[in-house]
Design a protein that fits this description.
Helix content is 54%, strand content 14%. It is α/β, with parallel strands linked by helices and 294 residues long.
Length: 294
């Protein structure tokens, strides 16, 4: 079953870290090469507790060698502001179709109880589209458990690039990322909302399992929790949030490899994994892709 936190991951959170003691980091880092190009591929988590690390020595050495750094989204104050504006714009429910109209009386009662436990005004949720309400219900417990969007791996990498004069590149725009959610069909949005009502408070524990797997480089566990569950339970979501995006990104990566130099690619860890992941897609095109051994 796909958990609400998997969807939240794509927009704002991803494979978030637990607030427990951090293991010694050994996250997975790949390298692809041809005759005159080197490309590092680093699967990230977008939210970490304040003060924990974001990469090991191998990652830092790869970053130091890179000329260009790629992330999913440009990370600037302007981008953050635009994200908030678009989330409000596209996440607002029509006046004639409030959130409660999507749910049964029993589901509304459960939502009332969850909102009360989380300290969220019910009227605040009532004005949201189901996808936006589902994200909100998922994110609040995560944030209360000590997570900080400003401590994510991607932001640390972006800050490193800015501080060290690297050329920063982005795969997507804010409009595209918000559009992935706003464009979900009604059935998928409703399923997401229902699962948020039922599972939101379990999010921090599940993310603790995910982050432990990320920190030790356990790709089998990450693939099972993130990729396989999404593909099996929500094929429409998997197609929109993994397949289409990976297929667009792979064209950019191949174009970069046709040139020369060293690139560092930092995207959510799920995008590297599975049959539609960037690693297997590069290998299928004849590139030698190896995991960097720490």
């Amino acid at each position: 079953m796909i958990k609400t936190t998997v969807l939240a991951a794509i927009a704002f959170v991803a494979l978030a870290a637990g607030a427990c003691a951090q293991e010694e980091l050994d996250p997975a880092l790949y390298v692809a090469r041809d005759a005159d190009s080197t490309m590092y591929l680093y699967g990230t988590v977008h939210v970490r507790p304040r003060g924990v690390d974001w990469g090991d020595e191998d990652v830092r050495e790869a970053l130091a060698a890179a000329e260009e750094i790629w992330t999913e989204l440009e990370m600037t104050p302007e981008t953050d502001q635009r994200t908030q504006e678009l989330a409000i714009q596209y996440g607002r429910a029509p006046a004639d179709r409030p959130l409660s109209s999507w749910l049964t009386a029993e589901e509304n009662a459960r939502l009332d109880g969850l909102a009360q436990r989380l300290g969220l005004p019910r009227a605040y949720l009532e004005s949201m589209q189901p996808w936006m309400a589902g994200l909100t219900l998922s994110l609040v417990p995560i944030m209360r458990a000590g997570y900080d969007p400003n401590s994510g791996v991607d932001r640390a990498i972006d800050a490193y690039g800015d501080a060290n004069g690297k050329t920063m590149r982005a795969f997507e725009t804010v409009e595209q990322q918000i559009g992935f959610f706003a464009g979900l069909d009604e059935e998928t949005q409703l399923a997401f909302l229902r699962e948020a009502i039922n599972e939101a408070e379990e999010g921090p524990a599940m993310l603790g399992e995910m982050t432990a797997a990320w920190e030790r480089g356990d790709l089998d566990t990450l693939e099972r929790l993130v990729v396989e569950d999404t593909r099996e339970e929500y094929p429409e979501v998997y197609e929109a949030l993994f397949v289409r995006r990976n297929n667009a990104w792979i064209e950019v990566l191949v174009r970069e490899l046709h040139g020369a130099g060293v690139d560092f690619v930092a995207v959510g860890a799920g995008h590297l994994l599975g049959p539609d992941g960037l690693v297997q897609q590069l290998q299928a095109r004849g590139y030698r892709v190896e995991r960097v051994a720490g």
